[in-house]
Amino acid sequence: AKDLGRNSFQLYTPAMNARSFERLSMEASLRHAVTRGEFKLVYQVKVDLDTGRMSGVEALVRWHHPEMGLVSPVDFIPLAEDMGVISDIGEWVLREACKQCKHWHDLGLPPVRIAVNVSALQFKETRVPEVVASALRETGLPPQYLELELTETVLMQRVDEVVVVLKELRAMGIRISIDDFGTGYSSLSYLKRMPIDALKVDRSFVNDIFDENDKVTEEGAEIVSTIISLAHNLKLKAIAEGVETAAQALFLHSKGCDEVQGFLISRPVSGEDLISLFDRNLLP
Ligand code: C2E
Ligand code: CA
Ligand code: CA
Ligand code: CA
Predict the structure, then answer these.
(1) By C-alpha distance, which of 42, 105, 102, 115 is closest to 72?
(2) Angle at which helices 159-171 and 128-139 pack, to 10 degrees?
(3) Ligand 1 atom nearest to CA at 60
(4) Helix (H) or strand (E) holding 274
(5) The predicted structure's pLDDT at residue 9
(6) Ligand nearest to the CA of 239
(7) Angle, vertex CA 240, rays to CA 186 and CA 150, nearest 5
(8) ipTM
(9) 147 C-alpha to center of ligand 4: Å?
(10) What are the EAL domain coordinates in residue numbering (predicted)?
């Protein structure tokens, strides 16, 4: 029993035991997952809505646990943050993504940008410009092909310091986009001060453009249009994620959205499988 104070206590249920056991065993193995080579990256294309061509790719991490099998980043990224190992994982992801992107360039494929997710905690814990510089140096990827995806949580912490770091990154030639835009609490006055390149319209908003009968919803459509206009008024690109239907892509194009990403175009695939998606029209 766990003591919760003078007059109350709670019993651990078998379900809770199972859950904390799972967490403990996941913690033990997560600590060694990088050195044991258990992570790999998959890549999801971003498409330019005007040309239908691949404009970039986003790197997404996967953990192949020896016993549990494939563990979703949604489950282990928060754990990695709690355990203080997110920066190790993040640095591995950055290096691997740069290496893969340089490899595509070397194969003579049309050069695309690679986007890497950086967790808010990683951004706080490490000198990101130095980590980025060493990844670029080691892999030989030119900086204009690297993009970092940051969440609004990053922008909210110590604004002046964040602005300095973002300026440093952009001075190196790296692009910055704000991920899951609209789901956090960033204020518009902060946003205006941020040296960034793009807003990524969160999947939940894209999902709300149409109702279950495929009819445009007034509020859902208005929110997405507003985010796209906001991006453009701030001289930023608008990228929509989680695009699953042709109707969503058409709507987004009609509102001037620049790029889309989602199952409509492609699920995240291995670096090898991505090769077939270069150099052709990817829009339905
Ligand atoms: P995110 O950055 O918003 O990534 C998009 C997620 O949506 C990915 O899930 C992707 O597979 C999924 N997705 C893409 N298109 C569609 C679609 O059309 N429909 C639906 N329903 N889903 C779609 P994934 O790969 O499981 O990643 C989940 C989250 O984990 C990411 O959300 C990101 O926050 C985090 N994450 C993934 N890789 C990394 C990483 O290397 N570093 C860090 N710090 N976080 C990562
Ligand atoms: Ca992302
Ligand atoms: Ca996102
Ligand atoms: Ca999202």
Answers:
(1) 42
(2) 20
(3) 38
(4) helix 271-274
(5) 56
(6) 3
(7) 40
(8) 0.97
(9) 17
(10) 23-282
Q: Tens digits of per-residue pLDDT, 243-268?
A: 999 999 999 999 999 999 999 999 99
Query: Which ligand has its closest atom nearest to the C-alpha of 74?
Result: 1
pTM of the model: 0.93
Residue 2 pLDDT: 44
Probe ligand 1: pick from 63, 151, 210, 241, max atoms within 8 Å of CB?
241
Q: Ligand 2 (ion): which residues have CB within 5 A?
A: 117, 149, 179
Residues 89, 85: Cα–Cα separation, whole Å = 7
pLDDT more than 90, % of the chain: 83
Site of tokens 């445009």: 216
Which tokens go with 92?
């591995």
Tokens (6 digits) for 135:
């990844």
pLDDT in tens, 137-158: 999 999 999 999 999 988 888 8
Task: Give the pair of three-digit tokens for residue 108.
Answer: 């003579």
The pLDDT tens digits of the residues spanning 12-53 come to 667 767 778 778 888 889 999 999 999 999 999 999 999 999
Residues with Cβ within 8 Å of 46's Cβ and at least 6 positions away in sequence, in order, are: 54, 55, 56, 57, 58, 115, 239, 259, 260, 261
Burial of 125 (0-12, 13-18, 19+ CB in 10 A): middle
Q: Whose CA is nearest to atom 37 of ligand 1?
A: 60
